[in-house]
Description:
Helix content: 25-40%
Bound molecules: adenosine-5'-triphosphate
Largest sheet: 6 strands, mixed
Radius of gyration: 23 Å
Shape: elongated
Order of helices and strands: EEEHEEHEHHHEHEHEEEEEEEEEEHEE
Amino acid sequence: MTLFSLTGVRQVFEGRTVLDIEHLELSAASSYSLQGPNGSGKSTLLNILAFLEPPTAGEIRFQGRVVDWREKTLHLLRRKVVLVDQHPIMFSTTVIKNVEYGLRMRGIPSRKRRAAAEAALERVGLHAFADRQAHRLSGGETQRVAIARALACEPDVMLFDEPTASVDVENQALIEAVIQDIRRQQRVSVIFATHKRLEAARLAERRIFLFAGKVTGPGGENVLSGIIAHRPDRSVCTLGPTVELEVRQRLPSGPVRIAVKPEGIRVYSAAERQNVAFTSVLHSGRVLQMTLEGDAVKLHVDIGIPLKTVLSRDEAVDSGIMVGDTVRVAIDPDAIQAVQG
Length: 341
Ligand SMILES: Nc1ncnc2c1ncn2[C@@H]1O[C@H](COP(=O)(O)OP(=O)(O)OP(=O)(O)O)[C@@H](O)[C@H]1O
């Protein structure tokens, strides 16, 4: 079942478009990671999905119904979707009262409230902390109490904004275990923003990549820092000591972040001279890794910068390319998206 369906969703802050999603569907009872560089729009998207901030434009369907962004309806939707913030705010009272907060707002009687809050604290391993002062907890404990506070409300969807960004290794493992436990309860969907690739691999069934506010597909993994310079006939982006890529976007000279879509990267065996795509510039590289994923082969290639691309199984067989081979790599300038900074 479709949980969220977004069409033409844009968020504009101070005249700047920071989120621009043509179409995105999220399935129910799944777990998604939201990945992308700083400022790519992850928190902005989470705030929209949590019904905390309406988008400037576009349509969002939740569980099949169009969201109309009126306070009365939002109130009900916010019971179904709960966002656990990166820096949760604790009220200056006990842990248990903080966890009970959402239930109190819903008018749940005190005994039932207490039992639900205790059960939620148990799930995050903080049962013994019930009577402690919440604002004196460590970062990791605070994050776990915030998760308990969300869990107590029994939402359909839990959103997390970088749940382990400011916690130690021990709390990271505990929080990941709690998220995995939440997912094992089939009913609850989980969407979390993270900068940690391994965390995404551990926790997410599906991954969404954002770059400059747009969903980029797995190409979001090819995110690199470079410097734009203008030559008489073209603009180039210098990456590392040896690599220069042509960039078609018009940007001022200076530092940029670029994303290279994997479908814009073609890899040829060193011998192949025919049908070279996109560009006359061919980079020399080496194949570091080839992994079979379903009917596709994921290729890691080093051309002085690390790049990931995908071939169909047939293309991979036909090319005869093997791990360790020296190859030539063509990159489509139109597959490069650059943003300043
Ligand atoms: N309320 C706001 N007013 C103006 N600009 C905003 C506002 N909220 C976010 N932005 C801008 O929108 C862009 C996207 O921000 P967002 O916080 O969604 O990115 P992010 O991917 O979550 O980044 P990070 O990984 O650093 O948390 C940024 O350039 C940010 O400065």
